[in-house]
Write a structure and sequence with these properties.
alpha+beta, Arc Repressor Mutant, subunit A, 3 domains
């Protein structure tokens, strides 16, 4: 979106009623025909703008797209989203955010893409990233904490995203699956990928990326058993702009609180209330190990507590968790 069209959109959105063409001409120092051309471009982009002779222009409907012009007015943050890089398409928002961080991007800088050609999840799995339907976002953090605490961040992000979904989509029964997924009806709604660059005593930066399936309906055939979207679960399309703003608002608040604490203790009640794995029989797949047992909560460092058959409690720092059916024959979660 060019700067003049963006200014017109912001002016119409802020006013809420009719804004005369003459006022726009005076404020922008352009002709009436130029105003009309920019309004026409906004309409082509999906914005519903009414034009009435003698009254001017009135914004009837936003697109809900996660563009800065729609997200910024909804933000109540100090830093998250205040630098906002929007891309029609990119290879991976995490890769773009990492490059930005190395170039000195401030904490809270955000990269959002309408589509990705190389989206990734954990274990280097591909993340399907078609245009126009989902949220693909990465956030630069510069936490002044020892690197040993960084693995707690995915659960802070998960709580923020879960809270935002609950706020924007009341009635949707979403759960947090340790360590970094949001689940609805046993299928993945959102995945979180955190990457960092650090030294033993210094964290240079952390990039928190997430992909949230919003309006993708139907899903590709190969994903229908393991993934879902807000549109599929609710039967209605959601505003990606409102969802993104809600995530950024909540994430900044939780992140700042986390920085002032020694661990995740303050967040454990929320994480455990909304835990998908709570009390379930699990198989945890690690690189060269498979663990089984019953989920027994989370430690204050965000480790999954696994109760083994002999009753001992094992803190699990990483791995892929799968539910075990009653007969204990492994099956995917």
């Amino acid at each position: 979106m060019n700067p003049v069209a963006a200014t017109i959109l912001q002016r119409l959105a802020a006013d809420g009623g009719f804004v005369s063409g003459g006022d726009l001409c005076g404020e922008l120092r352009i002709s009436r025909s130029a105003v009309w051309k920019h309004v026409a471009a906004l309409r082509r982009a999906g914005y519903a703008i009414e034009a009435v002779s003698g009254k001017g222009y009135r914004l009837e409907r936003l697109t809900g797209n996660p563009v800065p012009e729609e997200v910024a007015p909804l933000l109540g943050t100090a830093s998250f989203g205040r630098r906002f890089d929007y891309l029609e398409s990119t290879d991976s928002t995490n890769l773009r955010a990492r490059a930005m961080a190395r170039d000195g991007a401030p904490e809270g800088a955000v990269v959002v893409a309408d589509s990705q050609t190389g989206g990734r999840g954990r274990m280097r799995r591909a993340w399907v990233s078609p245009p126009g339907v989902n949220l693909y976002c990465s956030i630069v953090l510069r936490p002044p904490v020892p690197s040993v605490r960084v693995p707690e961040i995915p659960l802070v992000a998960a709580a923020a995203i879960h809270g935002a979904i609950s706020e924007e989509c009341p009635g949707l029964a979403a759960f947090i699956k340790w360590p970094n997924d949001i689940i609805v009806a046993g299928r993945k709604l959102c995945g979180i990928l955190c990457e960092m660059e650090s030294e033993p005593d210094c964290t240079h930066f952390v990039v928190v990326g997430f992909g949230l399936n919003v309006n993708l309906d139907p899903l590709p055939e190969e994903l229908r058993e393991i993934a879902t979207s807000i549109a599929i679960e609710t039967g209605a399309r959601a505003s990606r702009a409102r969802l993104l703003a809600a995530v950024l608002n909540r994430f900044e608040r939780l992140y700042l609180e986390w920085l002032g604490r020694d661990d995740l203790s303050f967040l454990l009640p929320y994480l455990e209330t909304h835990a998908w794995l709570k009390g379930r029989e699990l198989k945890i797949e690690q690189f060269n190990t498979v663990l089984t047992g019953t989920e027994a909560g989370l430690s204050s460092q965000g480790h999954l507590l696994l109760r083994s058959a002999d009753g001992s409690i094992l803190p699990v720092t990483s791995g892929e968790a799968h539910l075990l059916p009653l007969n204990h024959e492994p099956r995917p979660a």
